Here is the input.
Amino acid sequence: MRMETEKEFPEEDKPDVTDTKKKTKKKGCNQEEVIAVLGHELGHWYHGHIYKPLIINQFIVLGMFYTFGVLVKNEKMLADFGFVAEQPTLIALSVIFDHIFGPVNSVIKTAMTYLTRCNEFQADRYAVGLGLGAKLQTSLSKLLTDNLSFPVADRLYSMFNYSHPP
Here is the structure.
């Protein structure tokens, strides 16, 4: 008994799945380039780039909790949003986090992106100091290609949105 697919596609006419998929070959990094990237990552460790943002974020969260604790009791703020007779905590939470922390978070995000980019440049300088600059440059080019990153980025946009320099 023959199967239906055999009737539709005889052996020589069956479509080849590998032909239908686009083949993309990734370049990857050779051993020297991997060592250069490792030198960059060691630069992050050497300069304490892990601890600085962690401590800064702890202060930001502490400041947000303190500000929320102060503002949640502010009856005038909720009255300005139309809640005169009652003071619902859930609405206060929404107002504080959406309307007050929203612009503050935009400023904090920009500052943290700037700090991260400074850390990246500092880690790059550390790798260059180890004599790995040329290999780091070629490995970063390969990583951009392999990750299908767009090679051209607007300077202003990347300054505010990219944690790593383009």
About this structure: Residues 89-129 form the longest helix (41 residues). The chain has a mean pLDDT of 82. The CA atoms of residues 28 and 117 lie 24 Å apart. DSSP finds eight helices and no strands in the chain.
